[in-house]
């Protein structure tokens, strides 16, 4: 069974930083692109970032470009999202997801709240 | 970036009826890399369709996708009670990838 489990969500002050993690099991992690998608309270889905199998190709939404970074550790079957210079509008549930022609497996999400 | 506009915002239908959801792109989507997702309250999204018209394994055949270029459609041929949810389109033809704002299919 494929499982994606996110962690690291928290309450953080504006301007602060946070690192989210996603541990993946039940599949050959290192052959898939992976990504992060977020959902603000009561709002729709928003693409955040994605990364290729080797970690040497990364793409970001315009809204997070230059503030967020995505990385992976294939030895640990783990995906990460480093979030810096956080803003109130970054408040959302953050999902990690596996990419295979679409985001076809998702975690349960981890909540991030940016507030003073 | 490619903007995806979904319509209508809300679709009020009865079980057994046909649902037609639209997703229009601000520019042509390369190779028709367009996916559809279903999301129910408190749950993560679930992919239904990829590459505009390819149904994902395990998805009932009442769900179908069509379209190309800038205009795409998700059709649910006969709504079952479990189909009332929010539906999103998403493109991966151009970076950055983007989602539409969603269409809610609600019980009339």
What can you see in these coordinates?
The complex is a heterodimer of chains A (116) and B (108). With 116 residues, chain A is an all-beta fold. Chain A contains no helices and 11 strands. Helix content of chain A is 0%, strand content 53%. In chain A, strands 2, 4, 5, 6, 9, 10 and 11 form a 7-stranded mixed sheet that branches. In chain B, the strands form 2 sheets. In chain B, strands 2, 4, 5, 6, 9, 10 and 11 form a 7-stranded mixed sheet that branches. A 4-stranded antiparallel sheet of chain B has the order 1-3-8-7, with no helix packed on it. At the A-B interface, strand 5 and strand 10 of A face strand 4, strand 5, strand 9 and strand 10 of B.
Could you say which overall geometry of chain B the principal axes of the C-alpha atoms support?
A: globular
Which structural class fits the helix and strand makeup of chain B? mainly beta
Total beta-strand segments of chain B: 11
SSE order of chain A: EEEEEEEEEEE
Distance between the termini of chain A: 40 Å
Describe the largest sheet of chain A.
7 strands, mixed
Q: What portion of residues of chain B is helical?
A: under 10%
The assembly state of the depicted protein chains is heterodimer
Q: List the uncertain runs of chain B.
A: none
Structural class of chain A: mainly beta
β-sheet strand percentage of chain A: over 45%
- Terminal-residue CA separation of chain B: 35 Å
Largest interface: A-B, 20 and 25 residues
């Amino acid at each position: 069974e494929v499982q994606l489990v996110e962690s690291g969500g928290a309450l953080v002050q504006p301007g602060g930083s946070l690192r989210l993690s996603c541990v993946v099991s039940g599949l050959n992690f290192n052959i898939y692109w992976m990504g992060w998608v977020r959902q603000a309270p009561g709002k729709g889905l928003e693409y955040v970032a994605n990364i290729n199998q080797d970690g040497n190709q990364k793409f970001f939404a315009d809204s997070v470009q230059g503030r967020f970074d995505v990385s992976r550790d294939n030895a640990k079957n783990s995906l990460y999202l480093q979030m810096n210079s956080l803003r109130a509008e970054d408040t959302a549930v953050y999902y990690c997801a596996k990419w295979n022609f679409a985001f076809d497996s998702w975690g349960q999400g981890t909540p991030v709240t940016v507030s003073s | 970036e490619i903007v995806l506009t979904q319509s209508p915002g809300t679709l009020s239908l009865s079980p057994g009826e046909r649902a037609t959801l639209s997703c229009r792109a601000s520019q042509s989507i390369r190779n028709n890399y367009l996916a559809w997702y279903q999301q129910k309250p408190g749950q993560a999204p679930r992919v239904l369709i990829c590459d505009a018209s390819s149904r994902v394994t395990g998805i009932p055949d009442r769900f179908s996708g069509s379209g190309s270029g800038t205009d795409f459609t998700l059709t649910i041929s006969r709504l079952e009670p479990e189909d009332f949810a929010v539906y999103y389109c998403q493109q991966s033809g151009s970076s950055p990838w983007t989602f539409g704002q969603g269409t809610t299919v609600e019980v009339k």
